[in-house]
Amino acid sequence: MMHDADHWQATRHSLLARLKDADNSTGWQEFFDTYGRLIYGVALKSGLREAEAEDALQETAIAVARHIPEFKYDPAKCSFKTWLLLLARQRIVHQFRKRNKPGGDANRVHAGPERARAAGSDTLNLASDDATQPATVDRFPDPAGERLEVIWDQEWNKHLLSRAVEAVKKQVSDRQFQIFDLYVLQERPVREVARALRVRAAQVYLAKHRVGALHKKELKRLESEM
Q1: pLDDT digits (tens, 9 = 90+) for 76-88
Q2: What is the pLDDT of residues 159-173, one digit of tens each?
Q3: How many structural domains is the chain composed of?
Q4: What is the 3-state secondary structure (H, E, C) of the chain?
Q5: Which residue has the higher pLDDT, 137 or 190?
Q6: Which domain holds residue 132?
Q7: Are 193 and 182 in contact (CB under 8 A)?
Q8: Rounded to an integer, what distance in angstroms lies between the CA atom of residue 71 and that of residue 74?
């Protein structure tokens, strides 16, 4: 019987092998299911708008298709996560440069207070000293720098947690998942959870233990596969 680590290693190599076959639609669908939301989220957090983030995602997928035949999996030298970040980063920067082109519609976007508030604290700081000036790639921190790597790692971890939760949800009863969601994910008090779902406190603790163990297992699997 194949050990979990061997199975995860084989799964990862299998996906990379399928991606090297440009006509393998199943492999590319799995790529988008696994990484699409991640890349799109990172692009948004970097300061791109929705249409720009969608373009960055599509261009990253095209770059992966173009360069995947050259990629050789070797975690000691370059993991797929790092390689994918390099490709995504280049496409995100490209979107900022397109915004910066003279006469471009996106070049007229201002980085004023309202936009800064709408973007949220997790985005790159696009505000300049003079908010009346157009936002250009030279006027705010380069998204190819360390800040984007921080965003990438944050979104990567959030993505892993989200996918692990989705996987666990399919393996347990609705009641068990409700308990786990309220008590562990939403961090509600045990008494409140028990009262809301009409279960005993012991059932809450038991669900936390059982579902939590599955959640950790799924996280480990995803960390290995991705």
Answers
A1: 666 788 888 889 9
A2: 888 889 999 999 999
A3: 1
A4: CCCHHHHHHHHHHHHHHHHCCCCCHHHHHHHHHHHHHHHHHHHHHCCCCHHHHHHHHHHHHHHHHHHHHHCCCECCCECHHHHHHHHHHHHHHHHHHHHCCCCCHHHHCECCHHHHHHHCCCCCCCCCCCCCCECCCCCCCCCCCHHHHHHHHHHHHHHHHHHHHHHHHCCCCHHHHHHHHHHHHCCCCHHHHHHHHCCCHHHHHHHHHHHHHHHHHHHHHHHHHC
A5: 190
A6: 4-143
A7: yes
A8: 9
Kindly state whether residue 75 falls inside one of the protein's structural domains.
Answer: yes
Q: Which residues pair with 25 in a beta bridge?
A: none
CATH number for 139? 1.10.1740.10
Q: Is residue 158 part of a domain?
A: no
Give yes or no for residue 105 having a pLDDT over 60: no
In a domain, 12, yes or no: yes
Mean pLDDT of the chain, nearest integer: 75
On the question of pLDDT at 125 being above 60, the answer is no
Residue 176 inside a domain? The answer is: no
